[in-house]
Design brief:
Keywords: Ubl conjugation pathway. By secondary structure, the chain is of the alpha/beta class. Among the domains are: 33-70, Monooxygenase, CATH 1.20.1280; 347-511, Alpha-Beta Horseshoe (Leucine-rich repeat, LRR (right-handed beta-alpha superhelix)). It has helices at residues 2-12, 36-43, 48-54, 59-65, 78-81, 88-99, 115-124, 168-174, 206-212, 229-238, 258-264, 280-283, 305-314, 331-340, 359-369, 386-392, 416-426, 448-458, 471-482, 506-509, and strands at residues 15-16, 22-23, 73-75, 105-109, 130-134, 156-160, 183-187, 218-222, 244-246, 270-272, 295-297, 320-322, 348-350, 375-379, 401-405, 414-415, 432-435, 442-443, 464-467, 489-491. The strands form 3 sheets. The protein has a 16-stranded parallel beta sheet. It has a two-stranded antiparallel ribbon with strand order 1-2. The longest helix has 12 residues, at 88-99. The model is unreliable at 8-13 (pLDDT under 50).
């Protein structure tokens, strides 16, 4: 019966020709005959740089490439998108003709941030809600004395600061237009700072800015060398709806205003303090048992074991903890947290390079709580070997993110085939995996393709598999590419995996 139905289906799909041959009715179909709606949908998967290339093919493709629906999210920073606008006149034409009411998101480099451009965006793009202004390479600003208009429906504003340009002249002009902003990013020059510290300039007046933005829910102050505790106090005094505060790599933050921060901001759920100069005494003054805090990052903050124990045993319901590179985080802290704290809500744990944790202590913790973890990072510790991972993988059946291994050369070897097979068998929900082991420590056999095949077939949600450059990386990459999963396997040189994907406000915290 099945054979008969298959034959009928085959006959329906063929046309009988005069010479006795059969021809498919789709044989003469080409891409030019696709409906415009279908072509538009195909183009929507391309980058804007690729869309511009497609516009050169023919008149029809040019019309589709210029459809405003394809230009809702636009970056005009060449280093990000590859798009370069050569003149202000051309940009003004684009805003009127190509962007218009469809535009929702735009990124502008310093040379395109002028009062004329901002006026045009305000007038021609009424639905613009997300904007990034990149002043990071500025040596001087344009004249904004005539600036009388600015997009008024913004919910997201990201400003990349210059380390030498004072922004107050520009900011004073836009204060009246940005009181609806809910997500604010101020991005500093942390990655450009040289070893010899020069004089620090407060290039933007945070105390005035907080008065103009009372509706902020997410504040991200990233790598700004002048941000200190007084600025945190300023935002906390005016932003009563604050849910997420990130001050990663703001080295002058010590935590002296954290107590009053939690007292004022009862909705604060996420606090990210990676790379700050937190002092243990200030953390021990916080009434943690009354805090609504659910997500905390204290990586590389040099807190004492006493402060860590005090905080973890009093926090009522932590779901996300990143506490890597802390000498004070040891087995005693972990034991006290298990016995006196509340770990039942924890779904993400990052203890990268916490060398004072033993494999036995981690095994006891994971045996009890590993089943609830969606993200686990135990990298940078030579004592946490593939043997421990093999023993706990059956418990980590809900894991979405795993980071393991250390780049340091180990005395023993990592049996990577067995590990990959164990991950594939026990972690069907896995989305991101990073193996940081030195390629010289990876031992695999001629049958390694079978283990890779098992992972590829069983871990269907896998989006990112990061491995150190080497022979094994090439084998895994080739395997996934043969299965048309071209973007999964990546190298540690240009990609890292983090539990940050599990933050409630992760999408709000993304910036370029």
């Amino acid at each position: 019966m099945d054979d008969v139905m298959s034959q009928l289906a085959l006959e329906r799909s063929q046309v009988y020709m005069a010479d006795g041959t059969f021809k498919s009715p789709f044989a003469s179909t080409t891409i030019e005959k696709l409906p415009d709606k279908v072509l538009l949908n195909i183009f929507s998967y391309l980058s804007h740089r690729e869309i511009c290339r497609m516009a050169r093919v023919c008149k029809k493709w040019r019309i589709i490439a210029y459809d405003t629906k394809l230009w809702r999210h636009v970056s005009l920073r060449p280093e990000i998108s590859g798009l370069h606008v050569g003149s202000l006149e051309f940009l003004l034409a684009l805003i009127s003709i190509r962007f218009g009411p469809s535009l929702r998101y735009i990124e502008l480099p310093i040379e395109l941030i002028t009062h004329t451009v901002l006026h045009e965006l305000a007038n021609k793009c009424p639905n613009l809600t997300h904007m990034l202004l990149d002043f990071s390479t500025a040596m001087q600003l344009h004249d904004f004395s005539e600036l009388q208009g600015f997009p008024t429906k913004l919910k997201y504003l990201c400003i990349c600061l210059s380390e030498v340009i004072f922004m107050e002249g520009f900011m004073r002009k836009i204060y009246n237009f940005i009181n609806g902003i809910e997500i604010l990013h101020l991005v500093g020059t942390y990655e450009k700072v040289e070893e010899e510290e020069e004089e620090v300039y407060e290039v933007i007046n945070v105390h005035k800015l907080k008065s103009a933005t009372p509706n902020l829910k997410v504040i991200n102050l990233y790598g700004i060398n002048f941000i200190d505790d007084s600025h945190i106090d300023a935002f906390s005094s005016n932003c009563i709806q604050l849910e997420c505060l990130a001050v990663n790599y703001c080295s002058k933050v010590t935590g002296s205003t954290l107590k009053i921060l939690f007292h004022r901001n009862r909705r604060l759920r996420c606090l990210l303090l990676n790379g700050t100069s937190l002092q243990s005494e200030y953390l021990m003054q916080v009434e943690w048992e009354k805090c609504p805090l659910l997500e905390l990052d204290i990586t590389a903050t040099d807190l004492s074991s006493e402060a860590l124990t005090d905080m973890l045993t009093r926090l009522p319901g932590l779901r996300f903890l990143s506490a890597g590179q802390l000498n004070g985080f040891n087995d005693s802290v972990l034991k006290a947290w298990m016995e006196q704290g509340n770990v039942r809500n924890l779904v993400a744990l990052d203890l990268d390079s916490s060398d004072n944790l033993s494999d036995d202590g981690m095994y006891k913790f994971l045996s009890k709580y590993g089943h609830q973890l969606q993200g686990l990072c135990l990298s940078g510790m030579s004592n946490i070997t593939d043997t421990l991972w093999q023993s706990v993988l059956p418990i980590l059946n809900n894991a979405k993110i795993l980071v393991m291994g250390t780049p340091e050369r180990l005395a023993g070897n990592v049996l990577i085939d067995q590990l990959m097979d164990g991950i594939a068998s026990n972690c069907p929900k896995l989305e991101r995996l990073e193996l940081r082991w030195d390629p010289e420590n990876l031992r695999f056999s001629d049958k390694s393709q079978k283990a890779i095949d098992t992972m590829r077939v069983k871990c269907l949600k896998l989006k990112s598999l990061v491995i150190s450059d080497g022979r094994y990386y090439e084998i895994v990459k080739a395997n996934f590419e043969r299965a048309d999963r071209m973007t999964v396997v990546r190298t540690l040189t240009n990609c890292r995996v983090s539990n940050y994907y599990l933050l409630s406000n992760y999408k709000d915290l993304i910036f370029n």
